[in-house]
């Protein structure tokens, strides 16, 4: 499924490209109304509507036209969330002006190094943390919408700012290695390949994350 591929290829991989970070933040805010599988099934539409998530282009989108009933965007999210994505893009543009990139800003909260979860069981993985709360408050102060700490933590997980793959998952060490490009461990790669089909616990985590709906955020 698209969600399994998402877990295996993207979730937890450290992202430093601004457009990709903008996309993942926008999709995370959509969790207030949709689950990850639902979002991923419409990802091509999100990219089409939101100009491939170029923050400058998104910031200039005509809100009235976008939220008009019957528009392709209106089939994705509520008017409130659509307007929020456009407004957030405007604030991201300001951050890029201030910090040079959204990447420098957001990764600065973790000293530019992913935090590692080290969890054995899905039930141990939090839905928000004190760090997510700090980031959320700063984003809100800057004028962002729909970025409560639970949404922010989902963004941190998917963007690899935190690695919450279970330690038994083949992606746990791979995502650590992705965050440290100079580290090479051929033995690990061999072990990871052998584990790809056996991570029932992590698939349970993937299912739990996939079903997550952040209606309170």
TrEMBL record:
It comes from the Eukaryota. Transmembrane segments: none annotated. GO terms for biological process: base-excision repair. The keyword Zinc applies. The keyword Transferase does not apply. InterPro entries: Adenine_glyco, DNA_glycosylase. Zn(2+) binds at residues 7, 165, 169. GO terms for molecular function: DNA-3-methyladenine glycosylase activity; metal ion binding. Keywords: Metal-binding, Zinc. This is DNA-3-methyladenine glycosylase I. It comes from Escallonia herrerae. The lineage of its organism: Eukaryota, Viridiplantae, Streptophyta, Embryophyta, Tracheophyta.
């Amino acid at each position: 499924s698209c969600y399994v591929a998402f877990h295996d290829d993207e979730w937890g991989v450290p992202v430093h490209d601004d457009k990709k970070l903008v996309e993942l933040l926008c999709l995370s805010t959509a969790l207030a109304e949709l689950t990850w599988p639902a979002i991923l099934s419409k990802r091509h539409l999100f990219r089409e509507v939101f100009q491939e998530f170029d923050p400058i282009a998104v910031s200039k989108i005509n809100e009235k036209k976008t939220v008009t009933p019957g528009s392709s965007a209106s089939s994705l999210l509520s008017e409130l969330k659509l307007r929020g994505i456009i407004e957030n893009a405007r604030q991201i543009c300001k951050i890029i002006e201030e910090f040079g990139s959204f990447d420098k800003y957001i990764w600065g909260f973790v000293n530019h190094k992913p935090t590692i979860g080290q969890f054995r069981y899905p039930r141990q993985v939090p839905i928000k943390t004190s760090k997510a709360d700090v980031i959320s408050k700063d984003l809100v102060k800057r004028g962002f919408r729909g970025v409560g700490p639970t949404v922010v933590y989902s963004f941190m997980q998917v963007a690899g700012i935190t690695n919450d793959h279970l330690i038994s998952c083949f992606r746990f060490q791979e995502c650590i290695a992705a965050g440290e490009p100079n580290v090479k461990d051929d033995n690990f790669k061999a072990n990871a390949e052998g584990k790809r089909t056996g991570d029932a616990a992590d698939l349970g985590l993937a299912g739990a994350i996939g079903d997550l709906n952040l209606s309170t955020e």
